[in-house]
Design goal:
Blueprint (H helix, E strand, L loop, with lengths): L28 E3 L18 E4 L2 E4 L60 E3 L11 H4 L26 E3 L29 H9 L7 H11 L4 E4 L6 H15 L5 E4 L3 H14 L7 E4 L5 H8 L5 E4 L1 H9 L10 E4 L2 H6 L3 H10 L5 E6 L4 H10 L4 E4 L9 E7 L6 H9 L7 E4 L3 H13 L4 E4 L5 H12 L5 E4 L14 E4 L6 H8 L9 E7 L1
Parallel strand pairs: 1-2, 6-11, 6-12, 7-9, 7-10, 8-9, 10-11, 13-18, 14-16, 14-17, 15-16, 17-18
Antiparallel strand pairs: 2-3, 4-5
Helix pairs in contact: 3-4, 4-5, 7-9
């Protein structure tokens, strides 16, 4: 839900470590989204580096130790900032391609110039000169790209999904002010015909005006209609199904609801939201996710639970053990259905749906609508009402840009200097593999940053602790595989950095959806070269 105001997140007072000696940076200037292209001058002065975000310039002051990073420009087309002269450059020279990784071939050109809109990047290939995490993640400062060979891809995603992505799709400059129609809801939360106790709980949370998906879906769910909800991330889909389903349970104590989601983090987030809305109402729930002790979940399932929330694999396991009897459930929610399809959970989804009563109430939510998703809708839902509030692939309040690596430039040093900029207060960094993500987080910690990591090889408790520290601003940086890219509501993420180019454009969309949520602004940067 998007209506409650929250304090803007910032770096904690202790986020800068003093474990390394400080020294001025090399003088490189970073220009952020909204700034104009700049040129390479004939000389580079020494001094403090700066990042230019929009129309404002910030000086980073004494930086954490960064070994010898070369100059480079974060911008569409231009390669370096000006260091004296004002001559312009028409494009970014491409370096000779590094050896492709096992996931595919590198599509970089060895020509001396490249058009300003970048090139076409094949996912799974080497992403330029990296921080030495190729071939098992050794930290020897080599030039193979990114995390190309270390570890398995994170988050349990389906194997082999990749596509060619034009680098120009990673750029979205806000150059004009668009006048758009202001959303005028048909309802206020107080208008919905729900139990008075639930209305009171909504008011206590400070929610007044529903988001578009909530305004459209809640009345239809209350009418008992099957729903297909298509909406961008961060639009309040969770409350769009929880509020009317809580009302159903309050109206009929025999009502039981099962909610199926792709990741354990999203399941826990939904369960937390449910508990906050049902405090004191004697509505109980159990969260059934992999990575957590199954014995505790079995014990909880022995009691009456109005809501069972879980991931497909763990739910299927508990169904097989006869701890969950699908015939007892009248309503089912499939949230982030497109991601479950991508992650290879289609058989588990069909297994669960086949065990449900034929006259079930089905709510289906997705951020994208593909032919495969349409087939699931036709198979699972009965004459559904379609509610779509998605207007474009990426949120219009997320400014997007690329960071081009120059010949011989070290990817990790570039990231280091970028993270020194004061406006990067709360940063989510995405990598390709579990091993690479863990390695990068450790190296950033060694360099004096407060960093945590989240990926599929971490225990459930470790992942939850990393998320808590990041959400509560105890760490500045969270390094993640795509496991964190969907559904999670992490407040006030200032920047998303794609350290590795995502496998598909849909993955890119959902990665950068972690910033600029609701009516807040965000910045997404993708490192290429």
């Amino acid at each position: 839900m998007q209506n409650k105001s929250t304090n803007s997140g910032g770096r904690s007072a202790s986020s800068s470590h003093g474990s390394h000696s400080s020294r001025p940076s090399t003088g490189r200037s970073f220009r952020g989204p909204g700034s104009s292209s700049s040129s390479q001058g004939s000389s580079r002065p020494s001094g403090v580096s700066s990042y230019r975000g929009g129309s404002s310039s910030f000086s980073s002051g004494p930086a954490r130790r960064s070994p010898g990073a070369a100059g480079r420009f974060t911008g569409s087309g231009a390669r370096k900032p000006s260091f004296g002269s004002r001559g312009s450059t028409s494009g970014a020279p491409a370096h000779t391609s590094s050896r492709p990784s096992s996931g595919g071939s590198s599509s970089h050109s060895s020509h001396s110039s490249r058009p300003s809109n970048g090139g076409v990047f094949r996912s799974g290939s080497s992403n330029g000169r990296g921080a030495g995490f190729s071939r098992g993640g050794n930290s020897g400062g080599g030039r193979s790209g990114g995390f190309s060979r270390g570890g398995n891809s994170g988050g349990g995603r389906g194997k082999g999904r990749s596509e060619r992505i034009d680098a120009s799709r990673f750029i979205n400059k806000v150059t004009t002010v668009e006048i758009e129609e202001v959303f005028k809801p048909k309802h206020q939360f107080s208008d919905f015909e729900v139990d008075a106790r639930l209305k009171e709980a909504i008011a206590v949370k400070g929610y007044v005006t529903p988001t578009p998906i909530q305004d459209g879906a809640i009345p239809k769910v209350l009418e008992g209609k099957d729903i297909v909800g298509i909406a961008n991330t961060g639009t309040g889909k969770t409350a769009a199904f929880l509020i009317p389903l809580i009302h159903k349970v309050l109206t009929d104590q025999k009502e039981q609801v099962i909610v199926v989601v792709p990741t354990r983090e999203l399941a826990i987030q939904i369960d937390d939201e449910l508990r906050s809305l049902t405090k004191g109402l004697k509505i109980f729930s159990v969260c059934c996710v992999g990575g957590a002790p199954i014995g505790k979940q079995i014990s909880q399932l022995k009691y009456k639970n109005s809501f069972v929330i879980g991931t497909p694999g763990r739910l299927k396991d508990l169904i097989a053990r006869k701890m969950i009897r699908l015939n007892d459930f009248q309503s089912i929610v499939l949230d982030e259905a497109d991601q479950m399809l991508d992650m290879g959970f289609i058989a588990d989804m069909r297994f669960i749906m086949d065990g449900m009563p034929k006259d079930r109430h089905t709510l289906f939510f997705s951020a994208t609508l593909s032919p495969d998703i349409e087939k699931l809708i036709n198979d699972f839902l009965n004459n559904p009402v379609r509610i779509s509030v998605k207007t474009r692939d990426t949120a219009k309040n997320v400014e997007q840009d690329v960071i081009r690596l120059a010949r011989g430039e070290d990817k990790l040093d570039v990231l280091h200097e970028l993270l020194n900029q004061p406006e990067l207060k709360k940063v989510l960094i995405f990598g390709k593999t579990k091993h690479g993500v863990e390695k990068l987080s450790n190296v950033l910690t060694q360099r004096g940053f407060k960093s945590e990591s989240i990926h599929g090889d971490k225990r459930h408790s470790q992942r939850q602790n990393a998320l808590r520290l990041f959400k509560d601003n105890h760490v500045q940086i969270l390094v993640a595989t795509d496991v964190a890219a969907r559904g999670l509501d992490i407040p006030n993420v200032s920047h998303v950095i794609n350290y590795d180019v995502p496998a598909t454009y849909d993955d890119y969309v959902h990665r950068i959806g972690r910033t600029g949520r609701g009516d807040k602004k965000g910045i997404a940067l993708t490192i290429i070269g």
